[in-house]
Amino acid sequence: WIERFTSDLDELEGSSSVPPFVSPATMQWMRQETGRLAAMTEAAPFAAKPTAAIHGDLHLANVLVEATGRWWLIDWDDLAYGDPAADLAMVLAPLIARGESVEALLGTRDDAFLCRFALCQRAVLLDLVIDSLADWADADRLPAAAAAVRHAKRAAHERGLVVYRKRYAT
Known about the structure:
Blueprint: H1 2-14, H2 24-43, E1 52-54, E2 63-65, E3 71-73, E4 80-82, H3 84-91, H4 93-97, H5 111-137, H6 146-168
Antiparallel strand pairs: 1-4, 2-3
């Protein structure tokens, strides 16, 4: 996530496509928060290390459920060796983005997993804040839908920013 956040912020600033509703102070805050998250990850006693095969893009649109209750995961092009906590944070992202507590959904987990999940959960929220702006800037690629995309991405950014700052008091 850290590399993508940095890349998105570089692209926004480098192409002068920072949305007009985003202040320079917010851009600076996103840079600082990216650095803070990177430092927290490196300093964590249970630093995220690849431990298993993970989906890499596990969200509800990639889960198909048959009438029988059998389910399938699709879209495996981001398959990687990584941390299962990242997949779990991704699939719970809609709840996290609404500011809901998801800890009760984790079941019995060891401290190492819970530490890694907390970092992934924070990254998922920061992704909503930053990636929404990158998508807003890319909206011109779809002229017929640009206004709708920009409206949705601005709302996602602003909602994510409120939830992130409330949860992490930054």
